[in-house]
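Hi U.,

Before I forget, here's the chain from the pilot set. I'm dumping it here mostly so it's searchable later in email.
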Amino acid sequence: MADSAPVLKAVVPAAGLGTRFLPATKATPKEMLPIVDKPAIQYVVEEAVDAGLSDVLMVTGRSKRSIEDHFDRAYELEEALRAKGDDERLGAVHESSDLAIMHYVRQGEPRGLGHAVHCARQHVGNEPFAVLLGDDMIDARDNLLRRMIEVRQQYGGSVVALMEVEPDQVSAYGCAAIEATDEDDVVRISDLVEKPSAEEAPSNWIIIGRYVCDPAVFDVLEKTPPGRGGEIQLTDALRTLADTPADQGGGVYGVKFRGRRYDTGNKLEYLCTVVQFASERPDLAPEFMPWLREFVRRKDAEGGSETASEGG
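Structure:
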């Protein structure tokens, strides 16, 4: 019988060093890099809140204090905006501080995602909880996390989000061996492999940065040795839970996600995300889109001229 305990808490690991974005992340957390005019981490917290999870634990590290400041009140700034009568910007400032009940715990050393999740044990207790990775942004219109919570309530165990990719991309992700259920978008997971080669991968369905975990995962993580890269992998713990009886918190299911996902974990995808978001902003798109089309047309023309010149 499925565990009907409600999912009420979200855990957001945000302790990474952000080395792919150096030197910008030398003093600024990568989670605070803006998507137009809002830091990426705020979109992630908004997603948790939209799914009904207003209790959010952020797992941070050294040099991440600005994340806490962003979700805190900024009285001097608020007073300055209020004095100017700038209600629009004042509302934007209030939005982040009023968004959720925020909690923070530090991951003392970078020992992997599994270790970061285990840092949440005291706060989460014996409750199911969601994990949202800051590098992955899911379009608010697609309601992925809400669907995952529904699957958890129906089937019990833990639930991961899956996306289908080309075979040459599986080596960058955790990959799942899947079995069909009676629902088209839900599968049972029989095995998980962290960053396999294309030849070793059990399928083309990779795990993206959304999880709903049974609290049994904490005991498993405590006993999970370091895996690939010398880190404690959440994938390894879920692999153990896939073979654990349901009455002990076992069973792992996957939700096949075919919606809109934005990866902000590398520079190219981050830039693509910024352009996509700007292109859909009603306050920016009318001016931004004509400029973008003209810029692309001009670059294409310059490239064509260079190619013709070199060919001649």
